[in-house]
């Protein structure tokens, strides 16, 4: 992926929205996350019949460049991590369904970050 910026969010969400459908509508509602790039994730989920663990984080806002972090910008910052386990039985089986599932999962992360 890449680090978040509002310009990137608009650019990538517009790109996904142009494809239309449910996924495009979901991505257009994101406020604080970039749309997922589903190819690698979906290939892994299809190939490995295991539970899925997602790591979401918040508190890195304002760190558009890695040098912002290395220069001490994280000192006294409050960073939160959230792990979420999804049992394999809850992962949809079809590619279109998995794609929508992944975009909805990102919407949940977006809600958490925005809260």
In short:
The chain is of the alpha+beta class. The protein has helices spanning 6-18, 21-28, 38-47, 66-73, 95-114; strands at 52-58, 80-86. 51% of the residues lie in helices and 12% in strands.
Topology (elements, then pairings):
Elements: H1 6-18, H2 21-28, H3 38-47, E1 52-58, H4 66-73, E2 80-86, H5 95-114
Helix pairs in contact: 1-2, 2-5
Structural notes for this entry:
The protein is an alpha+beta fold and 115 residues long. Helices cover 51% and strands 12% of the residues. The protein contains five helices and two strands; from the N terminus they run αααβαβα. It has helices at residues 6-18, 21-28, 38-47, 66-73, 95-114; strands at 52-58, 80-86. The protein has a two-stranded antiparallel ribbon. α1 (6-18) packs antiparallel against α2 and α2 (21-28) packs parallel to α5 (95-114). The chain is globular and about 45 Å long. The chain starts with 5 loop residues before the first helix and ends with a helix.
């Amino acid at each position: 992926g890449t680090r978040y910026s509002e310009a990137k969010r608009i650019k990538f969400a517009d790109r996904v929205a142009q494809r239309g459908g449910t996924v495009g509508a979901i991505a257009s509602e994101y406020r604080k996350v970039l749309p997922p790039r589903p190819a690698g994730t979906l290939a892994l989920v299809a190939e490995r019949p295991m539970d899925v663990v997602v790591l979401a984080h918040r508190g890195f806002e304002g760190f558009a460049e890695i040098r912002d972090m290395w220069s001490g910008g994280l000192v006294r910052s409050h960073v939160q991590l959230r792990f979420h386990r999804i049992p394999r039985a809850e992962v949809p089986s079809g590619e279109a369904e998995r794609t929508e599932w992944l975009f909805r999962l990102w919407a949940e992360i977006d809600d958490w970050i925005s809260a």
